[in-house]
């Protein structure tokens, strides 16, 4: 099976030999790819809706992997047992929904070896939450696929419950590892975001509404954070 650029990069984050639980599996492409290529020996394809699970079932059958991939109708992690999966993968959802899933499935999550997340929004909130829960960020990437930007992160549970890593506001927004490694896609994203914010400021300057000052102050604050991030590339 050939994956899109985004799904391919996500699949590369999964540790070889682990049992995978793909939460929000949709078509089941990642479990199929990883089992078919012998990256994982077994996988759970979970989704909250019957429709996506039925599509996944059809694709799994096409690849004759019914004995290696088990389907679960599950709201987040609720239908997974403790220690049933080594890798928990949650991708293609907003950050707030991902956090809700993590909170609800904490007991299952605590028994997994690694967590891979790729939020479509509120990435900073996901980073902040996982750090507060004593997770350690071990791998991070940003890619561009079909004109859209995606961040992928791998976290592992820290062994010391007293451990807390410091994240600046800039690192929460744009990624500590991405910045340290001078990720080229992030650089492109930052420059695009900078240009877009300046365009918005220009438009706001023409308006006389009472809330414009608050909007401008918020944008100027974000621009300072973007400049701080761009300093990593100088």
Q: Which labels suit this protein?
A:
234 residues; alpha/beta; Rossmann fold; 2 domains; 7-stranded mixed sheet; globular
Map the helices and strands.
Blueprint: H1 5-11, E1 20-23, H2 29-36, E2 43-47, H3 50-62, E3 69-73, E4 87-91, H4 95-104, H5 106-109, E5 114-118, H6 123-132, E6 135-145, E7 148-157, H7 169-174, H8 176-180, H9 184-204, H10 212-230
Helix pairs in contact: 1-2, 4-6, 9-10
Distance between the termini: 40 Å
CATH topology of the largest domain: Rossmann fold
Fourth CATH level, the homologous superfamily of the largest domain: Vaccinia Virus protein VP39
Q: Total strand count, please? A: 7
Report mean pLDDT, rounded to a whole number: 94
Largest sheet: 7 strands, mixed
CATH class descriptor of the largest domain: Alpha Beta
Number of continuous helical runs: 10
Named CATH architecture of the largest domain: 3-Layer(aba) Sandwich
Instruction: Report the uncertain regions.
Output: none
Helix content: 40-55%
- The SSE string, one letter per element, is HEHEHEEHHEHEEHHHH
Query: β content, as a range?
Result: 15-25%
Query: Which word captures the global form?
Result: globular
- Alpha carbon gyration radius: 20 Å
Q: Major sheet: order of its strands?
A: 3-2-1-4-5-7-6
User: Which class best fits the helix and strand makeup?
Assistant: alpha/beta
Q: Number of folding domains?
A: 2
